[in-house]
Amino acid sequence: MKELGLLSADMLALDEWEIPRDHVVINRKLGEGAFGTVYGGEAFFDHIGWVAVAVKTLKVGSTSEEKVRGGGAGRGEVPGEG
């Protein structure tokens, strides 16, 4: 995709609240709803180690509004921050 000009370095940069995929392990499916599926897993943080997390994946074709609303689930907090 990069060769086609569809992928830039900016698109690969993580936002402040995002966690690199290689720091997340998904263990099991917790549930499924209109917008996607929620999995239980663990995420690694440099300052505290491994922490239990919920990971929501969105269905293909979800709108921006659905992604923000997320069916009632809010963004999580990183333990020890904020």
Automatic annotation (TrEMBL):
Ranges of biased composition (kind: Gly residues): 70-82
Record key words, sorted: ATP-binding, Nucleotide-binding
InterPro entries: Kinase-like_dom_sf (IPR011009), Protein_kinase_ATP_BS (IPR017441)
Region (Disordered): 62-82
Coiled-coil segments: none
SUPFAM superfamilies documented for this protein: Protein kinase-like (PK-like)
UniProt: ATP binding residues: K56
Identification of the protein by name: Fer-related kinase 1-like
Gene that encodes the chain: LOC106820535
